[in-house]
């Protein structure tokens, strides 16, 4: 069932255009972002809430961290994101008008399930689950549900589940924006068009595989790596670092690029590869000056820039160009290269890509 692929992870990376197309299918077919995507009584629930609290673990937490940027800027609602295993053990403040959104590929992650139960015990009645497995424990315990349609994910390192979670969260954002008067009809058409183009843009990013595989050869010999991003792309830097750690066992950390000089810059020397996610957005100039700080210390830069970023390679600065800027959906497109970088670095190191040491696909214990 691997077809032309060497591992499930590689197959699942390549399935993303299809997985995304399936996940957005209902919205594209309806030609609008409708609350009914989240269940029959979703409109009443979603119009009454005044904020969002997202609870998740691992990669799913990074999907939530990306959604925070969308929800606050597009839907105009306050959003906080918390690691489920932290939330469940602290005395949290609960506002029952806030919607608790859990994100879990498997729907069985114990920490996320317990965090959901805890949120309910604190008085949260409105809960929504974003999940990839029909009828698993977390959606069954939730008021509203949105299933991603990634199909079964076998590789322990989550890939297509993550990007489809992002697509679902973007849909939730636009639905909330409409219900709360922040997204008008014209903007809705615009978001619809961006979503329609998403699978194609992801396919373009997949076509970069040979270039990324060449970079990965160099990564395979490194002991450490830094990942930088800003704004919407900071969570993607985190996801890139997690993928690299999980399957290559290379120590990797991610920072919002503006934090460099507050500490991590001390780590940068010729031996430290620095991956930068640098599409053309409002923070690009800031990212460029952060990159200069790295170069000045001899750090080698590996930059993912889109066609509009206006970057050129130079001594110590390697550039791979992702497709044209896709606006707010850019984090989804820029996930693809960091997945492929980790995958090919793992191949070069000869690790067990689909079953990394010490990890399980579904974490049903504490
Ligand atoms: O099934 P879940 O989405 O709840 O799983 C959460 C994490 O255990 C999971 O994302 C983990 O971080 C992956 N191995 C990441 O690749």
Question: In a nutshell, what does this entry contain?
Answer:
This protein is α/β, with parallel strands linked by helices.
Describe the structure.
Residues 41-182, 215-356 form the SIS domain. It is an enzyme of class 2 (transferase). It catalyses: D-fructose 6-phosphate + L-glutamine = D-glucosamine 6-phosphate + L-glutamate. This is Glutamine--fructose-6-phosphate aminotransferase [isomerizing]. There is one protein chain. α2 (16-30) runs antiparallel to α9 (185-206). The chain has helices at residues 8-14, 16-30, 42-48, 58-75, 84-87, 110-121, 137-140, 160-179, 185-206, 209-219, 234-248, 284-296, 330-349, and strands at 51-56, 79-83, 98-104, 127-131, 144-147, 224-229, 251-256, 273-277, 300-306, 317-322. The strands form two sheets. A five-stranded parallel β-sheet has the order 2-1-3-4-5, with helices on both faces. It has a five-stranded parallel β-sheet with strand order 7-6-8-9-10, sandwiched between helices. The protein has 366 residues and is α/β, with parallel strands linked by helices. α11 (234-248) links the parallel β6 and β7. It starts with 7 loop residues before the first helix and ends in a 17-residue tail after the last helix. The model has no long low-confidence stretch (mean pLDDT 96). It binds 5-amino-5-deoxy-1-O-phosphono-D-mannitol.
């Amino acid at each position: 069932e691997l077809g032309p692929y060497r591992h499930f992870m590689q197959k699942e990376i390549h399935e993303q255009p299809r997985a995304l197309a399936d996940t957005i299918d209902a919205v594209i077919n309806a030609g609008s972002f409708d609350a009914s995507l989240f269940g029959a009584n979703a409109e009443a629930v979603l119009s009454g809430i005044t904020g969002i609290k997202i609870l998740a673990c691992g990669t799913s937490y990074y999907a939530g961290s990306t959604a925070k940027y969308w929800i606050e800027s597009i839907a105009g609602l306050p959003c906080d994101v918390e690691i489920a295993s932290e939330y469940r053990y602290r005395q949290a403040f609960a506002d029952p008008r806030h919607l608790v959104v859990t994100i879990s590929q498997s729907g069985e992650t114990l920490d996320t399930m317990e965090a959901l139960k805890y949120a309910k015990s604190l008085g949260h009645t409105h809960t929504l689950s974003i999940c990839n497995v029909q009828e698993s424990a977390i959606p069954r315990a939730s008021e509203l549900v949105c299933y991603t349609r990634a199909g079964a994910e076998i590789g322990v390192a989550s890939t297509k589940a993550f990007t489809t979670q992002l697509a679902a969260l973007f849909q939730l954002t636009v639905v909330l924006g409409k219900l709360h008067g922040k997204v008008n009809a014209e903007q809705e058409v615009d978001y619809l068009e961006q979503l329609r183009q998403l699978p194609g843009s992801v396919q373009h990013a997949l076509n970069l595989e040979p270039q990324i595989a060449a970079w990965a050869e160099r990564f395979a010999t490194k002991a450490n790596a830094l990942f930088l991003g800003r704004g919407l792309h900071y969570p993607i830097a985190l996801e890139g670092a997690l993928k690299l750690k999980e399957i290559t066992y290379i120590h990797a950390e991610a920072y919002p690029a503006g934090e460099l000089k507050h500490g991590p810059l001390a780590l940068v020397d010729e031996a430290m590869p620095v991956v930068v996610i640098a599409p053309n957005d409002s923070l690009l100039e800031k990212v460029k000056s952060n990159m200069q700080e790295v170069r000045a210390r001899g750090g080698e830069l590996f930059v993912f820039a889109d066609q509009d970023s206006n970057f050129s390679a130079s001594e110590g600065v390697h550039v791979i160009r992702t497709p044209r800027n896709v606006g707010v959906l850019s984090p989804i497109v820029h996930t693809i290269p960091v997945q492929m970088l980790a995958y090919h670095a793992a191949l070069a190191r000869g690790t067990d890509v689909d079953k990394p040491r010490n990890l399980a696909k579904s974490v049903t214990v504490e």
